[in-house]
Amino acid sequence: MRTGGRTTSASTPSAAPGHPGFERPPPARRRGGLDPPRGLDRAERCAGAETNAMKAFIVRRLLATVVVLWVVSVLTFIALNVLPGDVAAAIMGPQADPTAVEALRERLGLNDSLLKQYAGWIADVFQGDLGVSHRTGTEVGDLIGGRIEVTVELGILSILIALIIAIPLGVIAGARPGTVFDYGLTFFAVLGVSIPVFWLALLFVLLFAVELGWLRAIGFTSFTDDPIANLKSMVMPATAIGLTLAGNLARQVRASMVEVLRQDYVRTAQAKGLTPRTVITRHAFRNALIPLVTVLGLQASLAVGGAIIVEQIFQLPGMGKLVIDSIFFQEVHAMQALTLLIAAGVALISLLVDISYAFLDPRIRYT
User: Is residue 186 assigned to a domain?
Assistant: First the structure.
């Protein structure tokens, strides 16, 4: 209609919510073209895909671990059965009647083919039967169960001592490359790698037990019985192993710290006027520890080998001493079980190292 020389159109009243002609306006779109709900769904899908990738990676590693353990079991069984020596003769003694020795061989199944012996042994392993000690008549599983806590405690204390020594030394040397402290760390690392762990163990016994009388040379006290006595019995063997591990770990921390301090984000933090201590603690320290995880996993595996010798020197009732006794007395079942257990422990450490990468560095993706 025309009103006062102006043309107006009749306005149509807008439909209210619930009216048949009501149409809800489209949701506001944020800059970038993604609706908030859709963006949230995409983030959730990415997080779900990452979780699935992690699960698939763990499953693949577990399957690979099973294959590795099977190969280890085959090689161990063959090696222990083709080595010189007769288990039955070792059990009966050198003066035993040959007829009795042959009867024992028949009872133990030693006259069967290697394939039949392996099939019987691996079937027993899957049922939790690791065999019986021919010398003591004790179940091998019980022998290991009573000694594994000593070796685990020794390994944990050794790694803690190595980290307490290596991380501060490596960080300081990496922050001051080319200084006297840096050269001193290099000398310490070479010394730690070169000195055998048994030599350090004997030196500690001579110094702290014989000369000074501060600690006892041999023996073990459980932590549940007396925590103080337990630490006194473990400090020398754990320190001997820890010092041999600390040198290599310190060199790795030093190299990682030098590399991280050359990154652009560290230079940006320095340009903002942050103190060197703040730059290291807030920006460089965590990233410098990522490569340490791989080396730490390898060193943890080496600590098992060091424990075999150290436990024998200090007469600790751990798995290392059980390995030596099993070899000396030709305890085949014990040696087979210990080899499998050590291989499983190393594989588990390797798996934990790979998984921990995702927590230390979110940029790492598993495919």
Answer: yes
Residue with tokens 């942050």: 274
In a domain, 16, yes or no: no
* Tens of pLDDT, residue by residue, the chain (367 residues): 444 444 444 444 444 555 555 455 555 554 444 454 555 566 566 556 666 777 787 888 888 888 988 998 888 888 877 776 667 766 776 677 777 777 777 777 777 777 888 888 888 888 888 888 777 778 888 888 878 888 888 989 999 999 999 999 988 888 888 888 888 888 888 888 888 888 999 999 998 888 888 888 887 888 888 888 888 889 999 999 999 888 888 888 888 888 888 888 888 888 888 888 888 888 788 788 888 887 887 787 778 778 888 988 888 888 888 888 888 877 888 888 888 888 888 888 888 877 777 666 666 666 6
Distance between CA atoms of residues 34 and 355, nearest Å:
33
Residue keyed to tokens 């290596």 = 166
94: domain range? 45-147+329-367
Judged by phi (left if over 0) then psi (alpha if -120 to 50, else beta), residue 353 lies in alpha
The answer, as to whether pTM is greater than 0.90, is no
